[in-house]
Design goal:
The chain has 15 helices and twelve strands. It is α/β, with parallel strands linked by helices. It has two domains: 87 residues, Rossmann fold; 232 residues, Spore Coat Polysaccharide Biosynthesis Protein SpsA, Chain A (Alpha-Beta Complex), CATH 3.90.550. The strands form three sheets. The chain has a seven-stranded mixed beta sheet with strand order 3-2-1-4-9-6-10. α4 links the parallel β2 and β3. α3 runs parallel beside α4, α6 packs parallel to α13 and α8 crosses α11. The radius of gyration is 34 Å and the shape is globular. The relative contact order is 0.11. Pfam families: Glyco_transf_15 (PF01793). This is Glycosyltransferase family 15 protein.
């Protein structure tokens, strides 16, 4: 009896083993996951992919937009650098507005070229300003204090007369009409920034203001372009100056040209400034909050004579002469036409005007994020059309749609 029970247990155990073996073998027949195989260059997609659609079957749509730009530009562009710097006039309170400007310039241009940056202030820069800006700039940063004699009333200015003018402009609500510091700034930018000891180390400058924006990638060295093409002054925006701020500026200019006729260049851009061969000024000027220019020209005898002549006339304080018309008139009269340059490809914003490059293909290729409808170039208050006409240049294709 015990033997029969033992055999029965063996039989039951054997049946359980057979059942387990059946389930194990069934689970092993589940198909394994199909992973995409490596596809060598030049291989046919149908030969290498198990997921290739059959003939006549609808092709799946790509989930990304194709790009012809397979590689990102190098972080640092090859080649020699020019003896150049960015220059910014700022105060400690401008720290976050200038940080924004630096970020735009570095991302769109300077991360590839690593040019220096000079910061100038009529006071001492504090540690926070230096710490933040030096962390953002890829080149060297330098911090300079403006000499008091360059940021104060010269001794030949009648203080009572100047104060009366400021009060009158305030009543007329002329922009910055009652500001003393704005007048010091305009005079300094007109005649002194390029003479600061820190700037004497350089030959080229790019002026950057707080709160500006750059909208497109700049893939070439703008300083090298200026040098190789014999350019000495450049702009991106031009417009008419407020008439109330410069009522006697042109008279002072004519006095200068009569005194120093040798400083007026042949083949200049008088037609950009005047509609009657220099008798009157049409108030066109290049907007100087953006400039790329040659410092040796500004330090030349011709420009120094020009600035000193205007300075003695007192218009920086008895009126409200801006550095933009002062620079523009000098460039238009003392440089040849071909020495001036319009950077259509540098997309730029400074409140309230935008320069967005004319030409859709360029904007796409250079990853621009400006709205072409905001472009100021062909607006009736812009002088850029006049610059093209003065130089016999053809306007960019598509400009008609932006008028």
């Amino acid at each position: 009896m015990a033997g029969h029970q033992r055999y029965l247990r063996y039989i039951i155990f054997a049946l359980i083993c057979l059942i387990l073996l059946f389930f194990i073998s069934s689970s092993s027949s589940v198909p394994s996951a199909q992973w995409p195989s490596y596809k060598p260059d030049g291989a046919n997609e149908a030969e290498t992919s198990p997921q290739s659609p059959k003939e006549g079957q609808e092709q799946p749509k790509p989930t990304t937009t194709p790009s012809d730009n397979k590689k990102l530009p190098p972080a640092t562009a090859p080649g020699d650098r020019m003896n150049a710097t960015f220059v910014t006039l700022a105060r400690n309170s401008d720290i976050w507005e200038i940080a924004k400007s630096i970020r735009h310039v570095e991302d769109r241009f300077n991360r590839k070229f690593n040019y220096d940056w000079v910061f100038l202030n009529d006071d001492d820069f504090d540690d926070e300003f230096k710490k933040v800006t030096s962390a953002l700039v890829s080149g060297k940063t330098k911090y300079g204090k403006i000499p008091k004699e360059h940021w104060s009333f010269p001794d030949f200015i009648d203080q009572d007369r100047a104060a009366k003018v400021r009060e009158e402009m305030k009543e007329k609500k002329i922009i910055y009409g009652d500001s003393i510091s704005y007048r010091h700034m305009c005079r300094y930018e007109s005649g002194f920034f390029f003479r600061h000891p820190l700037m004497l180390d350089y030959e080229w400058y790019w002026r950057v203001e707080p709160s500006i924006e750059l909208y497109c990638d700049i893939g070439y060295d703008t300083f090298k372009f200026m040098s190789e093409n014999n350019k000495k002054y450049s702009f991106v925006l031009s417009l008419y100056e407020y008439v109330e701020t410069i009522p006697t500026l042109w008279d002072a200019v004519k006095n200068f040209t009569a005194t120093y006729p040798q400083h007026v260049a042949e083949g200049n851009s008088m037609k950009f400034l005047s509609d009657d061969d220099g008798k009157t000024y049409n108030h066109c000027h290049f907007w100087s909050n953006f400039e790329i220019g040659n410092l040796n020209w500004l330090r030349s005898e011709a420009y120094i004579d020009y600035f000193n002549s205007l300075d003695k006339a007192g218009g920086f304080f008895y009126e409200r002469w801006g550095d933009a018309p002062v620079h523009s008139i000098a460039a238009a009269l003392m440089l040849k036409k071909e020495e001036l340059h319009f950077f259509n490809d540098i997309a730029y914003y400074h409140v309230p005007f935008t320069h967005c490059p004319t030409g859709e293909q360029y904007r796409l290729e250079h990853k621009c994020h400006c709205n072409p409808k905001d472009n100021f170039d062909w607006n009736g208050y812009s002088c850029t059309s006049r610059f093209f006409e003065t130089n016999g240049m053809t306007k960019p294709e598509g400009y008609e749609q932006e008028q």
